[in-house]
């Protein structure tokens, strides 16, 4: 569903455009607010503006604007077939129905967003709308990669998860019939100051540590088990693992997260599955720029760097990844990141979730006993939300979203729904508006996709910035004296020529042409309110009235006003001066010559105590007042009049 619409541009825009103005029934006419010289310029003023390409339109002394509302153009004599007014439109290119189930024979044809592909044709400023629907289908395949901190402080956690695979597969089997599990581990960069680098610690970083004297050499990230549905293999690999030791408190976990996200083939992420990356740790991570402490100045390149023995080979060559890079790669590969951290770290990692879309955080017990419940809770939390993201958003296009979730109430400004059940369908209304026209030939498109989904809506965009009449432009047209291009009703003259039909030549005579359009030497051409065309002024139209005169020096609106009314409503404005109607005088015609209202009951004018000015008594006798100066308690004859 969609419907085109328009936004009224801010009034401030109109103040930036100098040119032809007119009155409409609604007031200010934005289309005539600029002296548009071409059809394309007219289309950019406002989406409701149209251009008249009729050759004989507006001939006369006044410079008539070809840019106006279409009904005004027709009223002024432009035939409908010559009116150019393109509008925005939408075409749905692919719209497969939403699926209801994720596994089984239809696994590779699952659709969770509709439509899948649309094409927009946008006129700048003209708002266009479309709807899209998203559904979390039932029984969707799940790939879960368990990424564990194997620093020394996690020894008891390692003991707890040695049989995690079987138990987790049993619980996840209640949510999906297609579940796979993988495993990887991390410690930190094996270099100073992050790890112990003395020769005696190379093979055994725990050398001399009484509480736990033996451990494996420090490593950055190690991929141990690719995603598999053989959960017993998970148990076997976990039971082989031993902890290691690093020097400082923070770990190199973000190095490991990025490798697990981008090494898709090595990890075994399936395209048709939810990707869950569980990150279990009991300490804070190193971030970008921390690597400089060890002399690592090369930023992370965001690529996969796994060696033949499945270890991160660039650990001691590149810096730690930034949060921005991490979020980008997780989103690119549709991965939901689950931070499983101890209680004291909850707030820190909760802050990370605000910066990395599609992440959640859960509290992990000190020995990881609650890890299964944690994963199930995080999975249910992920499946209860749908949040849209926009990829490759063109700068000249504005988007706004309105979400309609399960309660059916539109929520303007939101592109997220929560508290959903698996199988629920939510919809989003999207408004699209092009703010300007891009360079010719530019190809624009963008993508809307729910966080963590493989499904997406591809949107291609072209722009309605050209007029149809421009396709039939005639070079060296006889209409333009054979020295100009006739395009959309106007002539574009060759250099050195001017005039409505290119009939005048610039050069030695140009100063003569322009001087004939000046009222006096030093004055503006056509008083700054018109154009000089071949020795005569063509005056602009105005919103406020008519501009006229040999030099456009006169108008019928620049006269004195009284209480905001031109010539007080009792006269006509002519060339800056009020010409008053009979019975009125004054600069603004607000002075009535009628004296009947000044006559007192005794027939005298203002009771003989004042004079009648503009139809009202102005009392001159001290102490006199009243409409006709009839009241005067202190006047010498006050008692005489009462005798």
UniProtKB/TrEMBL annotation:
Keywords: Calcium, Cell adhesion, Cell membrane, Disulfide bond, EGF-like domain, Glycoprotein, Integrin, Magnesium, Membrane, Metal-binding, Receptor, Repeat, Signal, Transmembrane, Transmembrane helix
Signal sequence extent: 1-27
PROSITE patterns: I_EGF_1, I_EGF_2
GO terms under cellular component: cell surface; focal adhesion; integrin complex
Topology of this chain in the membrane: Single-pass type I membrane protein
Family matches, as InterPro entries: EGF_extracell, EGF_integrin_1, EGF_integrin_2, Integrin_beta_N, Integrin_bsu, Integrin_bsu_VWA, Integrin_I-EGF_CS, PSI
Primary location group: membrane
Example GO biological process: stress fiber assembly
Entry similarity comment: Belongs to the integrin beta chain family.
Protein name as it appears in the record: Integrin beta
Native source organism of the sequence: Solea senegalensis (Senegalese sole)
């Amino acid at each position: 569903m969609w419907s085109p619409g328009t936004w009224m541009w801010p009034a401030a825009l109109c103040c930036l455009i100098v040119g032809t103005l007119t009155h409409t029934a609604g007031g200010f006419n934005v289309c005539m607010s600029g002296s548009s010289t071409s059809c394309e310029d007219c289309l950019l003023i406002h989406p409701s503006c149209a251009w008249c390409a009729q050759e004989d339109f507006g001939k006369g002394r006044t410079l008539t604007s070809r840019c106006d509302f279409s009904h005004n153009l027709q009223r002024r004599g432009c035939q409908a077939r010559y009116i150019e007014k393109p509008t925005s439109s939408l075409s749905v290119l692919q719209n497969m129905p939403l699926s209801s189930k994720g596994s089984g024979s239809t696994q590779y044809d699952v659709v969770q967003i509709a439509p899948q592909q649309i094409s927009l044709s946008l006129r700048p400023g003209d708002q266009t709308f479309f709807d899209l629907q998203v559904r979390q289908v039932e029984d969707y395949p799940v790939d879960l990669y368990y990424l564990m901190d194997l620093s020394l402080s996690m020894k008891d956690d390692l003991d707890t998860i040695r049989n995690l695979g079987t138990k987790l597969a049993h619980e996840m089997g209640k949510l999906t019939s297609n579940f796979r599990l993988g495993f990887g581990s991390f410690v930190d960069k094996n270099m100073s100051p992050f790890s112990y680098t003395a020769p005696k610690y190379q093979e055994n970083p725990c050398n001399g540590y009484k509480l736990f004297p033996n451990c494996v050499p420090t490593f950055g990230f190690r991929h141990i088990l690719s995603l598999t549905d053989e959960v017993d293999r998970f148990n076997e690999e976990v039971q082989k693992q031993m902890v290691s030791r690093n020097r400082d408190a923070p770990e190199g976990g973000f190095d490991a997260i990025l490798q697990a996200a981008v090494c898709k083939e090595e990890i075994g992420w399936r395209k048709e599955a939810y990707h869950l990356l569980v990150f279990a740790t009991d300490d804070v991570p190193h971030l970008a720029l921390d690597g400089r402490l060890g002399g690592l100045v090369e930023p992370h390149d965001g690529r996969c760097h796994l060696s033949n023995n499945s270890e991160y080979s660039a650990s001691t060559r590149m810096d730690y990844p930034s949060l921005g890079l991490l979020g980008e790669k997780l989103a690119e590969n549709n991965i939901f990141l689950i931070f499983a951290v101890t209680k004291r770290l909850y707030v820190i990692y909760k802050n990370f979730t605000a910066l990395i879309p599609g992440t959640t955080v859960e509290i992990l017990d000190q020995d990881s006993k609650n890890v299964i419940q944690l994963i199930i809770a995080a999975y249910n939390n992920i499946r209860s939300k749908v949040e849209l993201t926009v990829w490759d958003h063109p700068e000249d296009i504005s988007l706004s979203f309105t979400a309609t979730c399960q309660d059916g109430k539109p929520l303007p400004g939101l592109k997220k729904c929560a508290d959903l059940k698996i199988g629920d369908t939510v919809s989003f209304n999207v408004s699209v508006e092009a703010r300007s026209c891009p360079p010719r030939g530019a190809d624009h498109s963008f993508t809307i996709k729910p966080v963590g989904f493989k499904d997406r809506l591809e949107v291609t965009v072209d722009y309605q910035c050209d007029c149809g009449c421009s396709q039939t432009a005639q070079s060296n047209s006889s209409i333009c004296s054979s020295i100009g291009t006739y395009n959309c009703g106007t002539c574009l003259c060759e250099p050195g020529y001017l005039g409505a039909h290119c009939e005048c030549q610039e050069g030695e005579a140009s100063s003569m042409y322009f001087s004939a359009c000046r009222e006096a030497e030093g004055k503006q051409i056509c008083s700054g309110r018109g154009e000089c065309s071949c020795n005569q002024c063509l005056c602009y139209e105005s919103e406020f009235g008519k501009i006229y005169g040999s030099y456009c020096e006169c108008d019928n609106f620049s006269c004195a006003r009284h209480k905001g009314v031109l010539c007080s409503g009792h006269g006509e404005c002519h060339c800056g001066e009020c010409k008053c109607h009979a019975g009125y005088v004054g600069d603004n015609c607000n002075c009535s010559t009628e004296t009947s209202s000044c006559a007192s009951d005794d027939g005298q004018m203002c009771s003989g105590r004042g004079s009648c000015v503009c139809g009202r008594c102005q009392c001159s006798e001290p102490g006199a007042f009243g409409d006709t100066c009839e009241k005067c308690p202190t006047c010498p004859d006050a008692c005489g009049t009462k005798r």
